[in-house]
Amino acid sequence: MTETANATADKIKTIRAYYKLCQKPENRGIVLKDKTFFNTLPTLLKDDSSDVIRYTVKILVLLTEQSDNIEQLLKSTELLPSLTDACENITNPSVNYNLVLVSSRIRAVKNSLEARRAEQNEPLADAVKELDKGGGTLHRKFVARKSKQIIMEFDVDEFDEAKKRDVERSLLKKKGVISVYITESPVPRAVLRTIPSLEAKEIALVVFAAGFEYVAQIVKMPGGGGEEEKFEMYASEAQNSKIGGAVASGDYPEYLDDDVLHVDPASCVITNEMAAHGAQENGWFSSITSFVKTSFW
């Protein structure tokens, strides 16, 4: 083996050792305190070896399962740009999906921290408030116009690792979802950053499709007291209400209007008998002509 090949092989062995360490949650904080490894993470995502990148991404998937660890990762200013570059350059579907997952988790926590800081600083920022009165805007308000936060809470008895992975993947695929972060303490919740037009009911449908029977939207009450209001939704109710509209029409092509799918025969202008009669003679035009004549003359 050449010197370069030997160096790559040694690097892979080292990274695999870190990966094995990270498989135990209690070791992840220790790994993040390793300054050499921590500072090398962005560089490893640009490595020439696909195996090095693959194991690095696997490590990041484990390190981003807890928000405390993500806050540590955010101390690296180079990590997010490296993740973005890696997403654009890597073609392996499995690795690319994990990269998107890691990036989504990190951005969700980053957005949450920035919003929290903005809320804490806002009462003190008199100069900025004056700027707002004059038509200026805070960065937080600028972000809020382009996206919003939706918090969904799961039933702890329904929640497990397999369902967590399934619902996280499903939510990331939902059009309009920007980022997803799932926390399990004290109760399982998904914190989503979405486009303003996306509704919580649409998110609930995705959750039900992933196998859950219950989900609740958590809305923080104004006033900053930390009080929350819970809006519960059930899969059984969704099938019999408007929230289940997308499910009920799921077997039909998306380009059909919902109104076409639920038609009262009594309200139809052309009845089944007229349609059959028209088919035997000269088609639709004759049927319509006959109907007009009998109606007005």
TrEMBL record:
GO cellular component terms listed in the entry, alphabetical order: mitochondrial outer membrane
Oligomer status and interactors: Interacts with mitochondrial contact site and cristae organizing system (MICOS) complex components IMMT/MIC60 and MICOS10/MIC10. Interacts with mitochondrial outer membrane sorting assembly machinery (SAM) complex components SAMM50 and MTX1.
Organism (species): Caenorhabditis briggsae
InterPro entries xref list: ARM-like, ARM-type_fold, ARMC1
Residues annotated as signal peptide: none
Location within or outside the cell: Mitochondrion outer membrane
Protein name as catalogued: Armadillo repeat-containing protein 1
Membrane found in the keyword field: yes
Purpose of the protein: In association with mitochondrial contact site and cristae organizing system (MICOS) complex components and mitochondrial outer membrane sorting assembly machinery (SAM) complex components may regulate mitochondrial dynamics playing a role in determining mitochondrial length, distribution and motility.
Primary localisation category: mitochondrion
Keywords: Membrane, Mitochondrion, Mitochondrion outer membrane
